[in-house]
Amino acid sequence: MNKYIVLIGMILLSACGQSPQQDKEREAPTTNSNTPETVSFSPAQLASAGIEVGNPTMQSINNMLVLQGKIDVPPQSIISLSFPLGGYLKSTRLLPGAPVRKGQVLAELEDMQFIQLQQDYLVAKERLVLAQAEYNRQRDLNASKASSDKVMQQAKAEMETQRILVKSLAQKLQVIGISPSNLSPDHISRTVSITSPINGYVSKVNVTIGKYTSPADVLFELIDPRDIHLMLHVFEQDLQSISIGQEVMAYTNNNPDEKIPAEVILIGKSLDDNRIAEVHCHFKQYKPELVPGMFMNGAVAITEQNALTVPEAAIVRWENKFYVFKEMGQGRFQMLPVLPGISKDGLQQFTASGIDTSTRLVLKNAYSVLMKMKNTEE
């Protein structure tokens, strides 16, 4: 019985000693001469895949920063028309959007005080003539000592008082658009005309015929389109890329192919709650379809610093990371991670450690190299 027990124990010990080695042999993967970062091609495979190798170059690429904004008008180009005296609106034919020219009659007001003001001017003018004649008479009498100095001085004061009254009334008439030189007893008008001070168009009409308007009421709002401009919103991180004089290509979402050139004329010096600054751009040529408040986009060309540049096909993406393939010689290539930058016109900037302009990289059909590498690993 003891012999059988010893024999069984030896068999078990032998089995335990051999099992780990056998398991290790079964679990060991088949190895390949290529590490996971490298792959080899035969000359025939290289020719078949159309792989081309070259050197990256140092280039500066203009990046387009696209900004959003709207058409704006500076305060000096918005005219709010009021009338210094109250009156009833007698006539107007204006509608919002209607073009106007400088000196054009926009509306007519009617009121009794217009008649009174003209009457006061004409009366004061006649009294001035009488006061001048009286002063001349008293001056002649005083020269012959037939009149006292006091009477002459009173006549002079009366004449100057009437002269001041005539001048002030004449200025009031000019303010409401009546020419004093054309005013006479036969040409007193009960209406006055409101004329346009600029060439532009009407943006607002706040009155109706028959309505009484006070001096504080804004009757019409006019816009001078000569200084219409584009106001763009720029985030804080992009503000340093904008400078005075930069060219901006403006376009609308409805017609993105029609570019309207503009130029940066003013950069805001403050940020709002959303960390956004305002940049004002002046259009190089005004177009009638540009209406204040219209939303527009502006593309600004930004020149970046020189960086390593390769064709876009040289950089591959795998598992949300970007790589290039470095030539190791004898058909071997090594996959190196890179950080892509600006891309434009088929060129791609990138940064990576250990790569410079002397490094040989796969510039064409890099995805063929990637597929060969992953198939070899599998």
Low confidence ranges: 1-9, 11-35
- Highest-level CATH class of the domain at 38-61 and 306-377: Mainly Beta
Give the overall shape, derived from the CA principal axes. Answer: rod-shaped
From the N-terminal CA to the C-terminal CA, the straight-line distance is 55 Å
DSSP strand tally: 23
Q: Give the amount of beta strand, in percent.
A: 25-35%
Mean pLDDT: 85
CATH architecture title of the domain at 38-61 and 306-377: Beta Barrel
Number of helical elements: 5
What structural category characterises the helix and strand content? alpha+beta
SSE succession: HEHEEEEEEEHHEEEEEEEEEEEEEEEH
Biggest sheet layout: 7 strands, antiparallel
* Helix content, binned percent: 25-40%
CATH topology name of the domain at 38-61 and 306-377, in short, is conserved putative lor/sdh protein from methanococcus maripaludis s2 fold
Taking all Cα atoms into account, the compactness measure Rg is: 45 Å
